[in-house]
Amino acid sequence: MMAIGADSPPEPTSTGSTELGPLFDAAFVAKLERLVVVAKRLRQASRVGDKKAPRRGSGLEFSDHRAYAPGDDLRRLDWNLFGRLGRTMVRLYEQEEEQALFVLIDTSASMALGGPRKADLALQVAAALAYIGLCHRDAVFLHPFAETLGDPLTSPPDRGPFAALLARLGALGFRGSADLPATLGALRALPSRPGVCIVVSDLLEVGPVPPAVDHLLRRKLEVALLRITSPQDREGTGLGPGPTRLCDSETGTEVDLELTPALLRRYAERFSRQEAALLGHARRRRVPFVSVDAAVPFDEVVLRLLRAEGLLL
């Protein structure tokens, strides 16, 4: 489809909107803590063990008791239980394994189109997801992608000022074409670890995405697709009627057409079929698929992702 025309939670930012620009202004920062609270409540309500697999260790959350055995750390004896029942029992704790959060940000040229730009919403959503992950002490990897998978903007043990991450996000350029299957293939080649992978893209030129998604699912990664589009993407809004020269923003290919209402209806129908195919595959694989307009506020988009079936951040 042608694209037309640290151990403690990070500080959100202390630089204000002067340096970070309007995308990451005070209003943006004020919404981050609310999103973290919602994510924490949803995570606690679900408490499923296949995302952050609990293991018996020396964490902070009490799990169970077992009988004392020679060599056990005496500091872990439950003296209150010994005083009440005369039994020497060792306290066990549940320790959570660090999970990975991969956020793939489409930086192809088509993302810079629209009013507002699709890229602006993508950057805000990526920043908010990263903040939630860092507050949960996850390993966060923000990867830009176009033809290939870019280097992560943040990775463990990068727990520095959150404003630095926002500055790196704001400096991203949007150019070239997107190759999502190649991108997911490159991610598949990275060391395997449990976690979540969220793709943020307009998904206009997606190619054979289903096989690539299946590979990630087999690696025990939860996958979610966030599609950001504009009315021009969906319906050709603002085009025609009459003779029109269309230029693909990613390849530079130009096409001269006589745009008619019937042709625009065919285009809108083709877009709808493509989205229905993506949604159908996602449902069959139980992969959350969220499709939004670029004008939707970023916090509403993140809340939809947080509440997506089976997806825990």
Observed structural traits:
5-stranded parallel beta sheet; 313 residues; alpha/beta; 2 domains; 37% helix; 10 strands; 10 helices; elongated; Rossmann fold
Characterize the structure shown:
The protein is 37% helix and 21% strand. It has 313 residues and is an alpha/beta fold. It folds into two domains: 17-47 and 98-306, Rossmann fold (3-Layer(aba) Sandwich), CATH 3.40.50; 54-96, no CATH class. The strands form three sheets. A five-stranded parallel sheet has the order 5-4-6-7-10, sandwiched between helices. The protein has a three-stranded antiparallel sheet with strand order 1-3-2. Helix 4 (118-135) links the parallel strand 4 (100-106) and strand 5. It starts with 16 loop residues before the first helix and ends in a 7-residue tail after the last helix.
Provide mean pLDDT, rounded: 81
Low-confidence segments: 4-8, 13-18, 48-59
Order of helices and strands: HHEEHEEHEHHEHEHEEHEH
Helix content range of the residues, please? 25-40%
Oligomer: single chain
As laid out across the biggest beta sheet, the strand order is: 5-4-6-7-10
* Form type: elongated
Structural class: alpha/beta
CATH homologous superfamily (4th level) name of the largest domain: von Willebrand factor, type A domain
Q: Number of folding domains?
A: 2
Distance between the termini: 32 Å
- How much beta, percentage-wise? 15-25%
- Provide the CATH topology of the largest domain: Rossmann fold
